[in-house]
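Lab notebook, bench 4. We co-purified these components, and the gel suggests they stay together. Before we commit to crystallization screens, I want a quick structural picture of the whole thing.
Request: model the full complex, all chains together.
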Amino acid sequence: MTTQQRLTSRDGAIAHDAQDRLAPMRAHFALPEDVIYLDGNSLGPLPHAVRDRVARTIDDEWGRGLIRSWNDAGWIDLPERVGARIARLIGAPAQTVFAADSTSVNLFKLLSAALALRPDRRVIVSERGNFPTDLYMAQGLIAQLDRGHRLVLVDDAGEIPGALGDDTAVLMLTHVDYRSGAMHDMAALTRHAHEAGALTLWDLAHSAGAVPLDLAGADVDFAVGCGYKYLNGGPGAPAFFHVAARHADAFVQPLAGWFGHESPFAFEPQYRPAPGAARYLCGTPPVLAMAALDAALELWEDVDLDAVRAKSCALTDAFIATVEASCDGMGLELVTPRDPARRGSQVSFRHPQGYAVMQALIARGVIGDFRAPDILRFGFTPLYTRFVDVFDAVEILREVLETRAYARPEFQTRARVT
Amino acid sequence: MTTQQRLTSRDGAIAHDAQDRLAPMRAHFALPEDVIYLDGNSLGPLPHAVRDRVARTIDDEWGRGLIRSWNDAGWIDLPERVGARIARLIGAPAQTVFAADSTSVNLFKLLSAALALRPDRRVIVSERGNFPTDLYMAQGLIAQLDRGHRLVLVDDAGEIPGALGDDTAVLMLTHVDYRSGAMHDMAALTRHAHEAGALTLWDLAHSAGAVPLDLAGADVDFAVGCGYKYLNGGPGAPAFFHVAARHADAFVQPLAGWFGHESPFAFEPQYRPAPGAARYLCGTPPVLAMAALDAALELWEDVDLDAVRAKSCALTDAFIATVEASCDGMGLELVTPRDPARRGSQVSFRHPQGYAVMQALIARGVIGDFRAPDILRFGFTPLYTRFVDVFDAVEILREVLETRAYARPEFQTRARVT
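Here is the predicted assembly.
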């Protein structure tokens, strides 16, 4: 499937879809008829299987099984089982990945570990444009430790290798930038960090389910990620963490809750960490949300991840080329790297009226999102996005820009979540 | 409703139920016909409203509304709205209570704050019998701070006032003991702590929805609690936290995630805490689980909490009296305080073959639970437990003990979760 060029007709786009081996996956998702959904990088849509699985979890397991379901329905193993499904998608060994808590909370645990494993170093290197909660959690941890740690933020990815030095404890990066869609070279940067004696903590929020990942091959130390974007686990789905086996037993993380205890149901007064990465679990797992994520991940079991990447590149290529051909001179500026090897599965354009343009698009059923100050963000999710969606979305974008439909006052008022 | 005495006949128990003003509440719960459920203190049963609400959240809000539901369906406000419902049940002002994360994670945030607000003090006073995850989280925090904090554990509640001294930063207690069901005098102990210059952190896991609470009246500083026990929010439901208004702005808690930021969607690189207790929020809220808890809490809106307490005391009184009359000399020893004013809404008996006895009961449809080493635990939950359940449960307990049914080998094998 090669679509390096723009889509010139709706029929042409439909012809691409007819050749798409992943096309049958779309039937697994509930997608409203009147919507072109290009925001699966923010919240993945509902897989039909989730509805059934959650209903079963509620009626049979909770309603009829009651407390017995911790054993009988295997609730107790959900963090590990869900983690094993994610491990395959990110190229990590099972047992090094568990589903738990939020991305923020998991990052705190892993960053605590990384700093503890480099006790003589005081610097966390990251990007100023990293997803804010990652920076906030680092700031919170630094303030709490009060031992002179510093967050050193670079403005440009090219500065990262040069920022790594003798005092760098951790290189903490989001693999695919949430605003620009630019993708780091995980293996190369991890190598740079290791050469400097530092550890790496990767946030895979915009990578897991979006781009090929090989955490084991890249020798990544720690990683966190999100269950509700490309993994389609539902709003606020449990997040996940990865701790490389070589580090897993080296540190007792501070959020030392009973589900990370070696023997939670012995009810001992003294914490004893579970062996391996399971010690990074904390409180009681959220069973309904875990069941939803588990069902969503089941869809991936027979999916060829190389085919996902190939289609992702074709969709994003086609979108860039078609927008640039159709909306030339209308104020859009491409933010995402033009080289598909350097981007994730989203495309972002800057526009001076970005917020209002996105509201006008949403009013016409093209759902992407806006990121301050001026970025229109479009996610392309190969399990359900079609080439005809790309074509139709660009047509509507062109119409919104050409007619200045975005200038209407109702599109200027900011919603609480944008 | 007074049943200080034992239930002497099934008809007598049914007569009690006929006079019970809370009896109609039972119809709101899915309770299997063949089960007498006395484990709502571990996992509350399914409210029918939860099934409908979660289905609506999945189909309409997630499936059709997609990302728009953060605004349109008010997902963004769920932690606050759910918190406000809980605030009423625990006698705390709205805006001081939010639903979020797990009890363990919330305890870490609040304990961090309490220690920071008493920077010259190094001691956390608690009980050796406190619920283990509370002790583990304190141990994890102490190890991380590495500033010489100590956890001082008393073995008997009577020792608590004497353990509070000039070096006590925090008195950290679970209000109703998970094993014995014994209830602390929250107001008196909080006063003792304050007299010693210390702060209080109460775990309400076995209190919220079980006993009357007046956090404001008792001048409590911090509290956490659980959504999946007496509040019936479902397995692993979101937990909650309370931060007294006087402390809310005094400290930036370390789990400083984007949902506790003053302006989460400004995507600023620097953390700025939200005003008030909202800064104790961290990551993206788990919407499906929050919706379930919200629906479960809606059941409480018209419930008279004094009537709940009166029925709870009557049920537990009746259970103690009937067991002691029916099972005399069969190896049971009451663990729970005999004075109803000194207990929560559960009754525990010790038995040398406790584990096997509980397994035999469960096999006969009487579901309580076991807590090591020898405790049979029975929860009485006035929204759905009937006096006839008390009568029938005791009859079955008597039969199990009399016939030594528990001696069968299959009842001796430990399950993973007990």
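Chain A has a mean pLDDT of 97. Worth comparing against the SEC data before the next meeting. Chain A touches chain B through 92 residues (CB under 8 Å).
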